[in-house]
Design a protein that fits this description.
single chain, about 140 residues, alpha+beta, elongated
């Protein structure tokens, strides 16, 4: 079980790993060993997460979300399979933590009457300064 927050956990059985050849560092080893990791997580299978977290996860996934409803993580920063696997898991957990945060409710506000009048006054003063720069009319 992976800990997302104090009350949210993720079962590791939902994570599907596939190892492929990486294009990054590793020298000749890159051509021989499959060190890059492709991790897939199906959002609908994450039943231990509340529905609002799953919906938010869909929003935050962006281009990582496939048509099948899976999130795809490619990890190839490091030279070992194990480290790339950990990197993919850490990135998923970061995304899940962000999805678990509640959105702040935005309250619409209107500018006060004094703020409006100050704005108009500064605009008038600026206009007067520009008028003084013009060539006098004959």
């Amino acid at each position: 079980m992976l800990k997302i927050s104090n009350d949210l956990y993720l079962d590791e059985r939902h994570l599907n790993f596939q190892f492929v050849r990486a294009s990054g560092p590793g020298g000749q080893n890159v051509n021989k060993v499959s060190t890059a990791v492709q991790m897939r997580v199906r959002i609908d299978d994450l039943i231990e997460l509340p529905q609002r977290v799953r919906d938010r996860l869909r929003e935050l996934s962006g281009s990582r979300l496939t048509n099948d409803g899976e999130i795809l993580f490619d990890a190839q920063r490091y030279r070992t399979q194990e480290r790339n696997k950990q990197d993919a898991i850490e990135r998923l957990l970061a995304l899940l933590r962000k999805a678990a945060e509640r959105k702040k409710f935005r309250v619409k506000t209107r500018p006060s009457l004094s703020a409006k009048s100050k704005r108009i006054d500064t605009k008038k003063k600026r206009g007067d300064v520009k008028k003084m720069r013009q060539r006098p009319m004959d």
